[in-house]
Amino acid sequence: MEFSEHIKTANVEDVVLRQPLHPPGRGTLCITGHHLLFSDREEGSCRQVLLLLRNIDAIEKSGVCRLSGSSGTITIKCKDLRVLQLDIPGMEECLNIARSIETLSCLDSMSELYPFFYRPSSASLRDQWGLSSLERHYSQMKELHDRWRLSTVNRDFSVCPSYPQAVIVPKSTDDDMLEKVAKFRQGGRFPVLCYYHKKNGMVIMRSSQPLTGANRKHCREDEQLLQAVIDGSDKGYIIDTRSSQQALQARMTGGGLESKSCYSSWKRLQRQMERGKALQESLIKLVEACGEESNNMDRWLSKLENSKWLSHVQTALSTAGLLAECVERDGHSVLVHGSEGTDSTLLISTLAQLIMDPSCRTLEGFLTLLEREWVQAGHPFQQRCAHSAHSHARLQQESPVFLLLLDCVWQLWRQFPLALGFSEALLLRLATEAYASDYGTFLGNNQQERCALGVKENTHCLFQALLRPRERDCYSNPLYEHTELAIWPSVYPQSLQLWRGFFLRWTPQTHHLEEAQEEIRNMVIEWGKLALSSCPASTRRSEDVQNM
Amino acid sequence: MEHIRLPKVDNVRLLDRISPRRSRVGTLYLTATHTIFVENEAGVRNETWVLHSLVCSLEKQAATASGCSLLIHCKNFQVLNFVIPRERECHDVHLSLQRLSQPERPDELYCFSYKPNIDAEERRQEWDFLDLRADYRRMGLPNSLWKLSSVNQHYKVSDTYPADLFVPESATPPVIVGSSKFRSRGRFPTLSYYSKENHATICRSSQPLSGFSARCLEDEQMLEAILRSNPRSDFMYVVDTRPKLNAIANRAAGKGYENEDNYSNIKFQFIGIENIHVMRNSQQKMMEVCELRSPSMSDFLEGLETSGWLKHIKAVLDAGIFIAKAVAEEGVSVLVHCSDGWDRTAQVCSVACVLLDPHYRTLRGLMVLIEKDWISFGHKFSHRCNHLQGDPKEVSPVIDQFLECVWQLMEQFPCAFEFNARFLITIHSHIYSCQYGNFIGNNQRERTELGLRGKTHSLWSYLWMNRADYINPLYRPDHSQTQGLLRPSTAPYCFKFWRALYNRFDRGMHPRQSVEDYLSAIQEETQQLEEQLASHKQKIAQLEQKQEWSVPQKAVPFDKSPTGWTFCNDLANTPQDYTGGFFTSSPCQPRAPITFQNEESNKTSESILSNGSDQESGIADVSCRSPLSEDSTRDPDSDEAAYSAS
Fold first, then answer.
1. To which H or E segment does residue B48 belong?
2. Name one Pfam family in it (chain B) (predicted).
3. Which residue among A17, A152, B152, B538 is least packed, with the fewest CB closer than 10 Å?
4. What's the predicted TM-score (pTM) here?
């Protein structure tokens, strides 16, 4: 594939770049197949701005004709919510650049994306890809082996295209049964284990909706599988992330819900969560409100309210709280699903695990959780993160579910600043990487697509990169202290806040807060150094060295 | 004591505001100063103390089968809901409290009966702790431009002004007296802040009695003198902090604002801050929203918007910024007034001072600032805080708004303030508690007449003695954020709802772990370690001299967490209302929850939450401790409560 055919003008001199938090700079603009490169040629400063074209959500162009010649201005709105402006001399150059950006920022073919070209000197393609696999997860969880097994019924992705090759299911269900159950669940997403609560042996399962349809079909194998899940317990809960009405309506289009008569030991709880287009529109409204220059308090509060974003945060956290409460406090197993089981289902199962399971709260633990519950479990990143809040393109499958997750995790981090092993910077980095990345981690919609593209062989892994020593320093929480306890978030409106770090990231106010974070890090480092130097073990070690 | 109709009631229930099914049974005592609720629970001594002077309103509801409910709203935003078994008893408690919480005479105020163990000499020192003249000296006054005037000794010129006032060197007593006759309540233009760097000043006054056309030569001379005292500037701002319409309406009553034509070289400016009545209603509306039992996000945000509270906070801060910039950046003096010059004027001058001068962002500095711009200049604390039975229309949260402005700034500049939010909240609490003499009375004259210095104690020295509780661990005097003029953003999204004040007693809403407390512990330990290290180094040096290397190391235990620091118990909170009532109908019995308990951590978290409250008087903060100990000590019960929520 030749990118050059999309690049009519590759270089322009004397371009002025305006970006938030920096004074304007004059220099050379250069467009490549994947990047926009700006180098400041002013004396003394050698600032370079390298922007992944994929990060560009929308551009707006305007032209001015002056006596001295025409020039054009391109406003670039990024998926990480940054807004840049380029003043380009020469109308034609400006239009060429704009056209190149428009085409190259949304290439359709995945194999042309930058991760397949990114070759950092610090890493090799032979490095380990990913942090864990379900096989490994299963073999580490000895407690599971009694009643649960690893099934490879989906080894060629024929049973469920959006599942990984291996899944964990009750031991008593064989692969034939699974195939039948898969036919009864949308997209083949039959119930699989996603979390085992060691304290009481209860589990969280997830799936998609059952395909009962208008004539209320049922499936014996599905019922048996679920019965096997609660074996020995009096009942289980099904948390359906749709309202009762939505669930009933889904029958008209072939979907449906678990009826009381067929699943007598299961109690269904309907908890409506916003999804799809409505969520995307909510993000658009919020970002618009944040970008507005208005000085009017009423207008801001009403726009914030009207965007409903914080309501979605509240709903997600309280539904996750309910799920965790069912498992941890009420002591029952839970099946979670909505319709497709790839969005709100993953959102609340992930949050519930963070609430209950301390091993998910470390930096590695959290990344492993994301890998398992989002990447491997088949959240369609490619579709959901194709565009962000600025895009003028017609909405298709876009929906900021992953961003909502990160926001909810940030709320948890605010309420339990010592309980999570990672920093806000990690959440911000993930929010950027999900939309535009050098790495292959969020490419594609599921494991099948990633296999077909050879993502593992041809790209680098983000999660591995985030755990390298230098990154680890920046992304870990200096205040982290392990706790075994569940961290129950408060979901009162008074307790939830706008995630300023993300939504107002490019304002100077956020900079003051970053300084404070830096100060905190320094304090802890200072204290740590002193504590170490007065620790007997280390002093003795240094003595040994001296004696040698 | 004669007002207590019933000193003790048994079998009273104290309901949890958020989940009313969760209640505690105990005995209610009425004392001369406090309402005390003692929980009857074997083994646990759980007490809730409420100072009578903090009671804001009482509501007795109709009797039901379970008893008669008495709802107490406090000025520190605590809400208590008691259910008293018999109507008669409830009636008596209600009447007693109504009288006790509304003293009629100043000598009934709590500060006159509050007797910590301090002798007369110490009391004198307490009151001498802050010295306003010292603060003026710090500003560089008096100097060749400004002098200390004795014109208001014995409060003859303005009975609501302090005795010590700074006026321009050229202002003669006839000019001052003449000007004072042309200003409401005689509050003539006088100095509030002087900038050493560029001679620009903030002056304050009340509105001129200009009506539609009246003039006063002396007042014009007074402003001229102020302008001349800033040699580098050829004009000054006159800022009227009222909305223009209000100011115009005042003209009909013979008051009003300065006519630019009559005064030479002034630039006149309106800044629309609403009056005390609007502010009172706004806070009331906001508190209604805060007290909703299970509001949705939309209910909350809509309610917050409708209350207008944040809009008013922004207006005050905007005004402060305007003045601070005029002084620091333009080097232009500003005269600020509203109507009487003791509400909005106090807010705006003190906010501007916080922005201008890093000193006012320190512990001692903020105390001095409140002493100067609020107490000495006659903010009517007694009326505004309803210390004595009086006109409800005089009550207004003007000082609350100042404290909140400071808090909003702290949120934007986490390293710029020496004190923490707890400091502001403690000050807020004591402004209303009447425990200390500082905020009693409406002006200096009244305070002198009441003999407060000899009969009551000063909050400032109490705060200073306990300053360790109020230090912001992130404060760096040398940090770039801390230097010179603060330039906050007043974009609407920068204003937050102050949960820690307005929902202070709803423990479940607050973060379960505090970064600040953790950092304070680290800071303290770092200091200790540094000292230890220094002493080790010294020892090593000594040993090296003796050339003895085989001395056994003294073991220093090292733990990842700062010594004695446990948050575990705080974490063992209960899940809240995620269920929307579902578990109520559930036949299942919740199993015993997994909890983590140990006495040590119990103590730690208690001391964290007691917020440096005054242990002797046991006001306010003590009661905020009780819900915590309940959570941590009686989990099975709280478990049940959480499930049956709503």
1. strand B47-51
2. Myotub-related
3. B538
4. 0.90
